[in-house]
Amino acid sequence: MTEEIEDAKREALDSIASAATVAALEEARIRFLGKSGRLTLLLRRLGQVPEQERPAVGRATNAARGDVEAALAA
User: Fold this and answer.
1) Comparing C-alpha atoms, which of 69, 48, 72, 68 is closest to residue 8?
2) For the chain, does the N or the C end have fewer beta carbons within 10 angstroms?
């Protein structure tokens, strides 16, 4: 699952970096952080991760979310 998180983060940051308009940034935000966004869905799947791996996967997902939010703010 950590590979999925890193892939989603990388794709989100690439989308944000290549966004030429405010509308494109908003689309990227919704696609990755929205209610059905990719990172949001990964967080919801945390319950399916083996118990001993949950803290690390949760930290990785929250860190990726924070990085994407910071990139959007910049």
Assistant:
1) 68
2) C
pLDDT band at 47 (very low <50, low <70, confident <90, very high): confident
What are 31's two structure tokens? 């696609």
Whose tokens are 């990964």? That residue is: 42
CA distances from 68 to 19, 20, 38, 48, 57 (A): 13, 17, 12, 24, 17
The pTM (predicted TM-score) of the whole model is 0.84
Tokens of 16: 């944000």
CB atoms within 10 A of CB 33: 16
